[in-house]
Amino acid sequence: MGRHTRTALPGRFRTWLAAGAVALTAAGGVPAAQAADSAPAASRPDFDADGSTDLVVGVPQDDSSTGRVTVLPGSASGPNAAARKTLTQDSPGVPGADETGDRFGAATATGDIDGDGRLDLVIGAPGEDDTSGHADRGAITVLDGASGMTEGFSFTTTSPSTPAGVGVGAAVTVGDFDDDGKGDILAVGEGDGGQGFQTIRADDGTRSTMLLSDGAIDHTAAVSADFDGDGYDDVAINFRDHLGKSYVMVEHGSPYGLQSGRLLETPGGRSLAVGDLDGDGRDDLVIGQAATAESKAHAGGQVTVVYGRARASTEIALDAATARTVHQDSPEVPGAAEAGDAMGSAVAVADFNGDGRMDVLTGLPGEDTVNGADVGMALLLSGTGTRDGLTGTGSVLLSQDTGATPGVGEPGDRFGSDVVLTDLTGTGGPDLAIGISGENDGDGSILQIDSAAGVYNLASGVYYGRTTIGTTSGARLGTVLALATSRASALV
C-alpha cells in the first residue's frame, strides 16, 4: 500500500497504504490535490489492470465467523458492486472449505508473490483448523491475480510446540525482505491462551516460525516499508501482550531476509501505517494508539509518528527519541479528547491537501456526538513535511453529519472503524472510503466518496452495505478494508 511520493524501486512489494489529498470547502465539497494517488501502481490492488484501484473488503464475521473477502473493481463511478467478486473457502480454486469460526478475511494484503508481474491476494484465516485436528492453528491463503483469483495455495505455521490455537493470519503483510524482486509474506498468530508467533514464507516457498511473545497476544497489525533506506523492506509488528501493554516489534530486511527483531521504545497501539512524513526519502511509521492504558496515550487516543533513519547495525531504523504525537487536545485539532473516542483505531497516510507533504487520516469510531454514543468520526491531520510532526492547522473532522454527506450518524455506528484514501475511479485523484462497522445494528457499511476535477462532492457519497456486498446479518462490514491500514485483528 503506497504511502509516499517516492517511486518504488523495481521489483519491490509492500503492503501499501493508500494515498490521496483532501481539504474542506465551505460549499460542501472537498477539493482534492491534483497530484495522483502516491501509491506506486504496481503495489495498489488493481487486479484487472484497468488503472483503477480495486477495493478489497474483508468480512471475517460473515456467516457465523466463517468469513469472506469481497473485491470491488474500481470504475469511473467508484467501486463497482455489480462486478464484485466474492471469495470464500468454498469458491472455485480457493483452497480449503468454509467452516464456522475460520474468520477468513481477518487480514488481507497484496503483492506479486510469484514474480509474474501481476498482483496476488493474501488472506488470513486465524480460526482455521489444520488437517491434523489442531483447532484454530490458522492459515494463510494466496490467490493468483493472473488467474482472476481462481487458483492459489494455502500454508500454515511450521511446527511450534503447541500448534493448536496459534491463530496465524490475524495480521499479514507482504514485502521484499531480501530484495530479490519477489514478495515474501509475514503472518502473525495471536496464540489464544498460549504464545504469540510469526511465520515468514519466503518467495521460494520455505517457511520459518518464530516466537513473538511468551504469552498470548492480541490487537495485532503488521506493515512493510523501508525505514532505513537501505533497499530492503523492513517490518513493524504491533501487538498487545498478555499483561495488557502494547508494543511494536521492528525487524530489518537484509540479503538473507528479515533479521531478529527489537522492540521499539515507543508504545504500540491498534493500527499501523507508513509514509515519508518528513520528506527525507525514508519511510516513517504511524501508530494509532487508541487505548489510553495499553499505549500510555492521551485520553481518547492519539496518533504518533516515529521517523525512519539511517542506522548503525546496533540501532533500530525508527527513531523513538524524535517521535511526535497529536491528539484532540493538541492545538487547532477540532473536537475534544474524551475517554473512549478511540482515536487511532485506524490510520492511513496521504497528501490530502496537495501541499506535497504527507498527512494522516485516522478513525475515531468511539466518538460521541449530539446523535448519541459511539457515532464515530474520521479526522484528517495535516503534515508539516518536517520532524516537527503533524499539525492541527487545516485539520478536518468528517462524519455522516458533515455538510451534504448522505445518511445520518446513529448511536453505535462506529464511523471510522477503518479508512481508505486511494484512486478508486481511475481519475488520478484520491477517493475516500470509510468503514462504519456498527451501521444497521452491526450489519456494517462502507461510505465511498468520489473526487471529480479535484473536488470531493460529499453529496455524491455512496453506501455499500449488507445488500450491496451480500453479507449476512451482523457481519460488521467495514471492519477490514485493504489499503486502509494494516488492521488490528481484534474487532473494535
Automatic annotation (TrEMBL):
<protein>
    <recommendedName>
        <fullName>Integrin-like protein</fullName>
    </recommendedName>
</protein>
<keyword id="KW-0732">Signal</keyword>
<dbReference type="GO" id="GO:0016787">
    <property type="term" value="F:hydrolase activity"/>
</dbReference>
<keyword id="KW-0378">Hydrolase</keyword>
<feature type="signal peptide">
    <location>
        <begin position="1"/>
        <end position="35"/>
    </location>
</feature>
<dbReference type="Pfam" id="PF01839">
    <property type="entry name" value="FG-GAP"/>
</dbReference>
<dbReference type="InterPro" id="IPR028994">
    <property type="entry name" value="Integrin_alpha_N"/>
</dbReference>
<dbReference type="InterPro" id="IPR013517">
    <property type="entry name" value="FG-GAP"/>
</dbReference>
<keyword id="KW-0325">Glycoprotein</keyword>
<dbReference type="InterPro" id="IPR013519">
    <property type="entry name" value="Int_alpha_beta-p"/>
</dbReference>
<keyword id="KW-0677">Repeat</keyword>
<feature type="region of interest" description="Disordered">
    <location>
        <begin position="37"/>
        <end position="111"/>
    </location>
</feature>
